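Task: complex structure prediction.
Instruction: return structure tokens for all chains below.
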Amino acid sequence: MGTQRKGGKSGELRPIGVIRSALKSRGKAPKQGAEGAPDAWLEVRSFAADGLDGLLAGDDVIILTWLHRARRDVLKVHARSDRRRPLTGIFATRSPDRPNPVGLHRVTVRKVVKNRLRIGPIEAIDGTPVIDIKPMLSRVQDF
Amino acid sequence: MGTQRKGGKSGELRPIGVIRSALKSRGKAPKQGAEGAPDAWLEVRSFAADGLDGLLAGDDVIILTWLHRARRDVLKVHARSDRRRPLTGIFATRSPDRPNPVGLHRVTVRKVVKNRLRIGPIEAIDGTPVIDIKPMLSRVQDF
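Output:
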């Protein structure tokens, strides 16, 4: 364990793909995928395409995005942008504004076309960088 | 939307805390929290402590970590390190080795002591950087 593995300590994210969606601005996006969000394309970059091997239409996966429009200097918000709600620490909310604005999106893979996945429903806006794809551990519970 | 919000486009992660655990090496850690992992402390850095406001003992949350011992140059693995399983794209597995080694850990908050959370069960090893804490959207399903 004493040796440094390649790239291990670096906290620099390298996007593995990008969301292509009809949603063009944050103001028009639903707050969660289950709240009427559309399907979208996930275009995986060529360097990472081999990592898709084994993913199939019908799979439930978690997409991790980098919410590039988020503010990183906010620690308290009104949940769901509702000012009637009390100011709450961002770690007790799902606000996109947070020190490391990683988005979690549970979606279904609709189809796989080479390095492109049709996925949904997903509230991420067009151009959102994707940093990871993970299978669900079970259909019902974990994540 | 034309202006750049502070820090928004940068993909540089800034850890908000660190795991303090009796698990000291990756080889001894369970592969998932539900597989016999212990409780641990999450020490939140002072700059982010205000973000904890509203988190309570008993809450189910998702901890996002940066798996600093992972390899980032791997695209196919044998799932669960079992060589009898076929080589599979890492996006169809939960292997820690992946281009952006973000770990997802569903845990229960046992107690909150100022800027420290007692959480578990969690398989992350001692010293693992924490990048986010998110509440579960529901007790049963989403993430």
